[in-house]
Amino acid sequence: MNFCPEEVLEHIFEFVTSHKDRNSMSLVCKTWYQVERESRYGVFIGNCYAINPVRLIKRFPRVRSLTLKGKPHFADFNLVPHGWGGFVDPWIKALAKACPGLEELRLKRMVVSDESLDLLSRSFVNFRSLVLVSCEGFSTDGLAAVAANCRNLQELDLQENDVDDRRGHWLSCFPESCTSLVSLNFACLKGEINLSALERLVARNPNLRSLRVNRAVPFEMLQKILIKAPKLTDLGTGSFVHDSDSETYHTLKSAMTNCKSISSLSGFLDVASCCLPAVYPLCANLISLNLSYASGINGNELVKLIGHCKKLQHLWILDCIGDDGLRVVADTCNELEELRVFPSDPFGPGNAAVTEQGLVAICSGCPKLHSLLYFCQQMTNAALITVAKNCPNFIRFRLCILDPVRPDPITMQPLDEGFGAIVQSCKRLKRLSISGRLTDSVFFYIGTYAEQLEMLSVAFAGDSDNAMLYVLNGCKKLRKLEIRDCPFGNMALLKDVGKYETMRSLWMSSCELTLGGCKTLARKMPMLNVEIINENDQVEIIPDNNDRQKVEKMYLYRTLVGPRPDAPDFVWTL
Amino acid sequence: MAKMGVGLEITELRLGLPGGGSSCDGGEKKERKRVFSEINGGCNGSSAGGDRNMQAVGWPPVCSYRRKKTIGRGNDQAFRAYVKVSMDGVPFLRKIDIGSRDGYPALLAAFEELFGCFGIGEALEDADSSEYVPIYEDKDGDWMLVGDVPWKIFVESCKRLRIMKRPDTKLTNYNW
């Protein structure tokens, strides 16, 4: 290895693209570290506050693809107040100065401003891919800047963002010279768009493979899109409502019959059931189907549609499909790898229409299933044990019983044994969310058996600090732990403070932590930021003799750059 | 400033379930879970009432984007109302689904797309200012100016639509 010239090393390193592998390579020796950092193309930063832009650029001067994640996961459920942080602006400013070669930016749960988008659009000549997931803070004006200025744009993918739709004509800002689009997803936008601009855009971008439109795009547009985008493999419809006796409907149906390339379908943000048969011709080739926003389709229609989809590998649906519908899925979709069943009426008086029976049926019929998100009315230990036996390949298993402390309704026992079976059987399990009535036992099982577990989400579970300790001691690969409403306190928090440096982050809210406990942790571990989110002035920092005050929300994470400078008033880094 | 002592914990403000235990003693650690189920009438086999799900902030863990899209939408998808739309001087009629629009501006924007009658949006604010005037036939067979009644009532009572060009309106006659 001493005689290997750097150019050769660099050439070999080009073949290694996974972040983990590149990180490992950089630890081998100084030479490898240098070669690796100078040739690194893509950097993944799972917590934008673990490092800062200056140090990123210093280590990876030629970075061309950056992924950043901001707010903690529980921000999705309104547990993190507005203004907490996750601002992308300093990153874009720093990169604009030092890395003009940037090509890709992928952001999740970050705050993005129109000014940032404008700066981005003007600073990176080769910029080609912008993916924003669950972000906020920008409007269609920012999108207009990206459309207008990014000459080589290939991908603009907006997933589930909260965008201020100014109803301007951002789509019309793509210049006539824009012919490089491969992927365009604006399903999350609420406003009208210029339909003829969309039609022309599709027509002049022959490489378009993925197009997901919003509700403002009517049924009539689909046939025009299909004709002009022959390479389309991923389609997200907007409004899917029309008179099924009409010429337009029949024309679309024929267009769909001729469409052999589409393998991924989503949308139906507005839908009339009578129009669904138009997509039946596509079903035989579908690998991926997302109907989780199609609240206009009732259970029977869903079942009819899915009955045609024999090759399906990824399915996202609403629970109105019911247990019976899931049985049909189990019979039809034997290649299924990922299933997400969302509640169609999470807060209303109706039932979540699926129970443990639907899950058991799926697991019997779909042995390749490895990713699950399942919102249900109830679960039993027996069902989970059966699931564990039939599907030992789970990598992600997230179960949400709508009543979070509901025991097994048949035996009235906690669900410890059921989840215990899951972690024992699924040796490759990386992500787990548990719910239902759960005692310390389930945590014992998790700590003992879930050796590959990286992320655990817990709510309303456990009886004592021991539960948390089982997990912290047992799960050696744990990276993210998020806990709400559990009786875990300072003893569990402080038992093994070194553990947190091996993890990305820990979230604890509505537990039994006190200010004193958090302060102690912060004192012992200077490489952690221990943040208290103090909404409504619950906690008083001065005077000193208040360490017994309960801390409602604590978020801690390892960092190389100390307390963050942009923390708002209600966030205290201890 | 009052000292934080044992007695004052009762006045502590916290987010969380009402009545939740607040001491550090082991004995009260189970109280949080029990309180949740007690509020909701105990954990029995029945699944009556989804209101138990409302009690805790951020539960069930559905992301806020999805929450906004699904609340209230589940039950009112039924209404589909295709009505004919005619415009003066255009030989063929169009059909439009007024049930899927969410208000008058959206409806008039749709007219602009279908017929190219730009500026019709102005008619909402001032019926005299636009070159085009949208009117509709209601259940009684009367022709009404679009925009007077609340949107939902309009959707239910509208049987057909017509876009008039301004010169005709001068010869207004309520029965034609």
UniProtKB/TrEMBL annotation, chain A:
Gene3D superfamilies documented for this protein: 1.20.1280.50, Ribonuclease Inhibitor (3.80.10.10)
Q: Does the keyword Nucleus apply?
A: yes
Please, which domain of life does this record's source organism belong to? Eukaryota
Family annotation (CDD domains): F-box_AtTIR1-like
- What name goes with this protein? F-box domain-containing protein
Q: Which PANTHER family match?
A: F-BOX/TPR REPEAT PROTEIN POF3 (PTHR16134), PROTEIN AUXIN SIGNALING F-BOX 3 (PTHR16134:SF45)
This protein's pathway = Protein modification; protein ubiquitination
Which Gene Ontology molecular-function terms are recorded?
Answer: auxin binding
Q: Which InterPro entries match?
A: COI1_F-box, F-box_dom, Leu-rich_rpt, Leu-rich_rpt_Cys-con_subtyp, LRR_dom_sf, Transp_inhibit
Return the GO cellular component terms, semicolon-separated: nucleus; SCF ubiquitin ligase complex
Q: What is its main location?
A: nucleus
For this entry, list what GO says about its biological process: auxin-activated signaling pathway; pollen maturation; SCF-dependent proteasomal ubiquitin-dependent protein catabolic process
Keywords linked to the UniProt accession: Auxin signaling pathway, Developmental protein, Nucleus, Ubl conjugation pathway
Automatic annotation (TrEMBL), chain B:
Q: Where mainly found?
A: nucleus
Its subcellular locations are: Nucleus
- Write down any Gene Ontology CC term: nucleus
Q: Which Gene3D superfamilies match?
A: Phosphatidylinositol 3-kinase Catalytic Subunit, Chain A, domain 1
Answer whether the UniProt record assigns the keyword Repressor to this protein: yes
UniProt domain PB1: residue ranges:
80-168
Top-level taxon of the source organism: Eukaryota
- Which Gene Ontology BP terms does the record give? auxin-activated signaling pathway; regulation of DNA-templated transcription
The alphabetized UniProt keywords are: Auxin signaling pathway, Nucleus, Repressor, Transcription, Transcription regulation
- State which residue ranges cross the membrane: none
- SUPFAM superfamilies the UniProt entry points to: CAD & PB1 domains
The record's subunit annotation is: Homodimers and heterodimers.
Report the function annotation for this chain. Aux/IAA proteins are short-lived transcriptional factors that function as repressors of early auxin response genes at low auxin concentrations.
Q: Which family does it belong to?
A: Belongs to the Aux/IAA family.
Q: Which PANTHER family match?
A: AUXIN-RESPONSIVE PROTEIN IAA17, AUXIN-RESPONSIVE PROTEIN IAA5
Protein name, per record: Auxin-responsive protein
Species name: Nepenthes gracilis (Slender pitcher plant)
